[in-house]
Amino acid sequence: MPRFASRLRPYALHLFLLLYAPALLAADGLVHQPLVQPGLGVLTFAVLATCARRTASRDRFDVWLCVPVATLFEALGSLVWGGYTYRLENIPLYVPPGHALVFLFGLTAAGLPLVARHDRRFRLAVLGACTAWTAAGVTVLPLWTHRPDVQGLTMWPLFAWCVLRSGRGSLFAGIWIATATLDLAGTWAGAWTWAAVAPWSHLPSGNPPSAVAAGYAIIDGSVALLAPAVRRALARGRAAIARRVSAPAGYPASRSSACTFAAARRFLPPCLAA
Fold it and tell me: CB under 8 Å, gap of 24 or more: what pairs does 6-13 form?
C-alpha cells in the first residue's frame, strides 16, 4: 500500500483537478441558490492559487495570464457568438480561473512519469479517443442525442495538428482530458448548454462538441503568444519606475528624496517592483 501511494503521488494534482471540476459544475448546475456561483468562483480562485504554487515561476505567470485571456474569449464565445449559454446567461465567476486550471493541467501533464516515458503513445491515445468520439458524433450518437456533431468534426483537424505538430502536443492532449471531463459534467448538470446549431456557421453541434478542446487550444495558444510581450511590457514598466525612483524628474537628487522613493517602492506590486 505505501508503494502504491508513492507511485500515485506524482498524479495527485491531476486526479484532484479531474474530481474537482465535475463536483464544482454539479454544484452550479444542480443547486440553484443566489450565492452558489460567487462562492464557487472564490473557491476556484483559491484552488488556482494553491495549485499554481506547484509550478515554476515562469509557468505560474502564464497560468495567471490565462485568467484575463480566457475571460475575453468567454465573452466572445458565449455573449457575442452565442455558441453556448450558461445557466444564468452570464459568465460565472468560476469560469476564468477554471480555464487557468485546465491550462495548468495540460502544462504539467508532460512532467508526469507515465507521459514522460511514453509521450508519443500518450498523445496518440488521446487523439484516438477524440477521433472515436468525433466519428461517433456524426454516426451513432445522433441516434441517441438527436444532435449530429458536425461542429466537433470541423474542430478535429485543428486539435490533431496541436497534438501532433505543434511541439507542445502533451499540453494539448492533457487539455483534452480535462476539457472532455468538465464539458461532459457541465452539460450533464445543466451548468451550460451548447446551441444545437452553431451561430454564424450554422453547423449542427453536439452538447458538447467532441473536439471542443480545439477551442481551448486557441485560448492557451494565445496565452503562449502573449506571455513574452506582457513580460517585456512589465520589465519596461519596472525599469521606468526604477529610473523615477532613483532620480525623480524635477527634483534634485538627494539622500532624503532617494530614501523616500526607496521606501515607497515597498508598496508596489511584485510585478512592478524592481
Answer: 10/111, 10/112, 10/113, 11/112, 13/51, 13/54, 13/108
